[in-house]
Amino acid sequence: MVKKAPRRTAERILEVTLALFNRFGEPNVSTTLISAELNISPGNLYYHYPAKDELINALFDRFERPLNELLGAGDDVRNVEDAWFFMHTLFELIWKYRFLYRDLNDLLSKNRRLEMHFQSILKNKTRSIKALLDGMRRGGALQIDSREIDATATSMVVVLTYWLSFEYVRDPRNALEEQNAQTALLRGAQHVLNLLAPYLEPGQRSHLLKLADAYNKEVK
Predict the structure, then answer these.
(1) Are 20 and 34 in contact (CB under 8 A)?
(2) How does DSSP classify residue 178?
(3) pLDDT tens-digit profile of 111-167?
(4) Three-state DSSP state, 200
(5) What is the DSSP letter of 142?
(6) What pLDDT is stored for residue 37 in this prediction?
(7) DSSP assignment, residue 141?
(8) What distance in Å separates the CA atoms of residue 75 and residue 61, rounded to the nearest whole number?
(9) CA 125, CA 86: separation in Å to the nearest integer?
């Protein structure tokens, strides 16, 4: 039992750190604030995570593993229904670790490990979205020239990566608070998928509009 205690403390530290980073932004949260929130000494925090970057890297690792697993599911998307579910699930994971996206450029400028790993994430996102587009094209849901896939996939990845930054700029005090999660996720998924609208088969385009309408009513 004694051996398990440090792991429990380390887990609790990460949970509280994630909540603080998400609420206030990583640059605005010090290790002193984290230890005070946990009601532990700074020394105890330092014992588990000797530097703030180690907290950031540990949280990033928890984000990166499920993200890469989820991106692999892009291969299985064949229609708008699949794409909607895939995109909404992706945004849910991004929301859980939203501090990474809200403060992305600042984090990358200070953390070389994050910089390297996020470059890999961008490549994986692009590969996944290309697979999604190709699967929908082969499934008959999408009519798109193969020469347009790269540019369309890149546009979708840009919106996917910077959507929460846009939400934050729109309403810095409230946009990324927990009560606004569903609205932010819905708008993000909708805007990414709207990039497909010109290429969708008419029945699929109609289905996308119905899905958006249904989710809009649900979050109001």
Answers:
(1) yes
(2) G
(3) 999 999 999 999 999 999 999 999 999 999 999 998 999 999 999 999 999 998 888
(4) strand
(5) B
(6) 96
(7) S
(8) 23
(9) 12
